[in-house]
What we know:
Strand order of the largest sheet: 4-3-7-8-9
Shape: globular
Helix content: 25-40%
Number of helices: 5
Distance between the termini: 10 Å
Radius of gyration: 17 Å
Number of strands: 9
Amino acid sequence: MALPGGAPGLCPKRRSFSQLEGGPLQLESLIRAIPDFPIPGILFRDITPLLGDPAGFKATIDLFVERFKDRGIEHVVAIEARGYMLGAPLAYHLGAGFVPVRKPGKLPATTFREEYELEYGTNSLEIHADAVGKGAKTLVVDDLLATGGTAGATARLLDRLGADIVGFAFLVELSFLNGRKSLEELGHEVTAFIQY
């Protein structure tokens, strides 16, 4: 995909979100495509240019806030690591607690663990056993929905804690990988703001 101002995978040179032409917010123009990362055959959607653009980052968080501000969210649960970049400011704006879901061995207290498969390998995630109370309204946030492996593992972790999962929210969805379907089949609401 060619982005404004450059070849495929390049973002506009130091052009800020506020300088982009056109009516609606064009957050997608601040996401670059990196071929063959982290392994050959994967087209990686890099959100770091969007995160580095003050107006673009603010507009991104505002999208999440507007969508979930009236849902009574008590905890925003974010998936390591890029989910933290969206989840923490969202939790702040919603007046909710922030709960990190991490890779194994990173949390110091008693944890629950769930394994998952993703589009280019396998891994597992952990959450503190006391992170979310039974019945607490939780929103799961990550930067990208691909196969739904990490999101599904997070759902299983929250089910073990007895949380009430209000929904899953992603900045980007790779719709051709059908991650949404796997979450919706489990009865979860899925929101994604940019789809490829």
